[in-house]
Here is the input.
Amino acid sequence: MRHRKIRAGLLAITLAAFAPAMTVAQGATSVAITVNDRAVTDYELNQRILLLDAFNTSGDLRRIARNDLIEDRLKQQEMARFGLGLPPEALQSELEAFAERANLSLPEFRQVLAAQGIAPETLRDFVEIGVLWRNYVRSRFGREVTVTDADIDRAIAQAGSAPTRIELLLSEIIIPVTPQNEVRARDVAQRIAQIRSFEEFSRAASQASALPSREDGGRIDWVPAANYPPQISAILLDLAVGEVTEPIEIPNGIALFQKRGQREARTPVTPPASIDYAAYYIPGGQTPAAIETARDVAANADTCDDLYGVAQGQAPEVLDRVVSPPSQIPGDIALELAQLDPGEVSTNLTRNEGRTLVFLMLCARNEVGGEEIDRDVVANRIRSQRLGALADALIADLRASADIRP
Here is the structure.
């Protein structure tokens, strides 16, 4: 699928690994910031804002862009002391790998960015500085970081013994977003985010939500907090009763939740290590014919494995079977899966600008099990976390001694 905005899942993968830098456009010399007498231009600042927006970043984009660009200069200055560079063939390979994270070829990826006013040099520098900084951190601190068997055992034990007893009672709104209604949809979402009344939120859901729950004012039943992806459950748990989330960007839409209640569950729920789900794509979107086809599929498919029989003889792309960590599942799918038990189905989502209905089935929530754990993966995760902490400390030291204006 192609979206005007790049999937939010891409941001979670890339911003942790890459710290961007921007190229100064020819003739764009108006200075926005100086870092140790090195300029950051208004052009660079505006390009960074566009890039953050393309990655569905939430928050004050200008403030985030300014902070990122200051850190870019500090990293560049630090690495310049060692004459670090990236060969052209290595940079090309990294660019292609970066685009693949969005399921796009590099030319397609550049075309999506160009449509949003983002220069090709912006992507190139974004990737290049990220790769160089990552390599520099590994080279400088690699010998300082050791991971023992005890560290791995401790991490596995913590991951496997962290059940939650929290259940959430929520109301939901998902506002469809198209190129034609985007401005209005965002304006409506911002107004809804200010609501604190249950009655007002219910009326808003009835008027604006695309989900069947709009018939009940957006109200849904109790859901374990652990069913939601970590980044969303953290937001929901922090809400006070009656409070509404900030707009949450999802593919083709904006989601908002109001907390109506929170309680301790009778049975603890262990956060899943991965989620197994299937998506069968039906032409026609939310038309009566497509919905009737979905009902027929549901009548003949009790499990995800049954969908292979349903899809037999059709093009391979009509059925996706995915096993993924919760944090890497597209936002709209993750929100639907949170409300499903294994074998249950949702037909609330569409793709291809509403022309394709998504028959979504939850196959299983996979808990951490000893036979499923790759100790090398755990060790690499611990090592990355420790390297990240050392890199953050280095940036803090560089920033403390830098001359940054204004």
